[in-house]
C-alpha cells in the first residue's frame, strides 16, 4: 500500500466461449462498424448436452472449456462466484487465513499489519453454474477520509469446478513511520465483465508499530 492508484492484469486459467447475450461490434469491408447480437446466454449444462454424440464436437468443447465439473453446473445460465477466504502472506509471520466475510476483533479491525513490512494477499474462490468471464476485484483504501490506494486486479475467466481457485497478488510493502500508523477503512469488490457483483464488503484494518501477538 504505497499511496498510489494501481491497475494490474493477470492472465488466469480458463477459456472464453461466446455464451453471453451481448452486442459486439464488427467492421464491414468499408470500415463501418455494426452491432452484432451473439444470442442469449444459456446454461452451460445445456450447452454440454448439445451434440454430445458428436465425438469431434465433444473434444472441441473439452478443449475450449477445460475440465468442467458437471456437479457444479446448475440449471441457471448465471454463473456464481463464492469468495471463500483471504490469506495474508508475510515472510515475517505465519500465514493468516481470514474467512469471508471478515470477523472484526474487539477494536473493529479485520486484521493488523506491521508498518514497513512486506506482504501479499491470496484469495480462494469457487465458481459454479456457468463460466464467469473477466472476473476482477477492486480494493479501495482510505485513511482519515482520504483515498490512499485504489487497486484493480484482473483475475481472468474461469470454468465451474469443485476445487477452489486461488489467486496470489504481488508482494507489497506497507507504509512506514508514525504518520502511516493507525486505522484504515477499505472496500473490497468482485465483479465480472457483465458488471455482476459477487462480493462487496467494507472493512477496517490497522497498521501498527509491531505485529499483533500470535494467537
From TrEMBL:
Pfam families: Rho_GDI. Residues 1-12 have a biased composition (Basic and acidic residues). One of its GO terms (cellular component) is membrane. Residues 1-40 are annotated as: Disordered. Residues 20-30 have a biased composition (Acidic residues). GO terms for molecular function: Rho GDP-dissociation inhibitor activity. One of its GO terms (biological process) is Rho protein signal transduction. It comes from the Eukaryota. Transmembrane segments: none annotated. PANTHER family: OS01G0913600 PROTEIN, RHO GDP-DISSOCIATION INHIBITOR. This is Rho GDP-dissociation inhibitor 1. It comes from Zizania palustris (Northern wild rice).
